[in-house]
User: Fold this.
Amino acid sequence: MSLEVSNLDVHYGRTRALRGVSLAVAPGEAVGVIGETGSGKSTLARAIVGLVRPSAGRIVVDGEEVSAYNARQWRALRRRGTVQYVFQDPLRSLDPDLSVEESIVEPLLIRGGSRREAAERARALLARVHLDEALLARLPGELSGGQRQRVTVARALVTDPRVIILDEPVSALDAANRVRALEFFKELRDGGTALVFISHDLGSVAGVADRIAVLYQGEIVEDGPARTVVNAPRHAYTRLLVGSAPTLRSAAAARSSRADRAERAALRELLQTIGGQAS
Ligand SMILES: Nc1ncnc2c1ncn2[C@@H]1O[C@H](COP(=O)(O)OP(=O)(O)OP(=O)(O)O)[C@@H](O)[C@H]1O
Assistant:
């Protein structure tokens, strides 16, 4: 397993934000963690990258029990970049004063790589996320939202992480960019990276997640193959999520003649990947 979380509890003072959470993600597997606001999604992600300390339970990354690490070991692990956390807001993870190239190469330079090698790697990574090299000289403020998100992903990839946690990876993207992003995440997953998608919207990650875990009030109430969770949810809360998922629900609206063709094609593709039907 690339990531194994077992019986994790996290407290903030007297608030118990996570209760006995267990989640395993294999290399080349994509798991969606879905839950409403306050359900504990960010807390889980933050615990996995060592930003909050669990009060009980274990976290094992690539065979190492990181939940037992001290601050120095965490710093070393972060420098290696074995686990990467891509924040929901790309502007939060990109320094506004650094060019795209500088942002991408920074983690490599911190690890002691040469500037020349780092620049070559930045070019290769930009191509990997399907962005033009002409963007290397731009500042984050000079990019579109979709381009910025791809730059943050390129930056996360620079350390060849075993696990990438993506917070709301497609929620802010339009239909065409969403489909492109999902295709790219599939390529990453197929290359052996373990992916964890965090979202409040089941529909937005159902097309790429192999498995979906539903987090409700700090507990995982359902965990199963994405198709099963979407088509035959067992828990009442999951049924509510399926019913209210904007992307899944809007599939019906997209069938109407008013819906624009690109949106309809994107939705069809999304639904096909999870075994649904769109005409
Ligand atoms: N630093 C903190 N101090 C105290 N309580 C916190 C802190 N961070 C989160 N919480 C509480 O822990 C619970 C889980 O919060 P968390 O941010 O993990 O939820 P979330 O599912 O990520 O929500 P959202 O989708 O709104 O980001 C909530 O009740 C929240 O109020």
About this structure: The CA atoms of residues 96 and 244 lie 36 Å apart. Residues 12, 15, 17, 35, 37-43, 200 surround adenosine-5'-triphosphate (CB under 6 Å). The first strand starts at residue 3 and ends at 12. The chain has two domains: 3-82+162-273, 91-160.
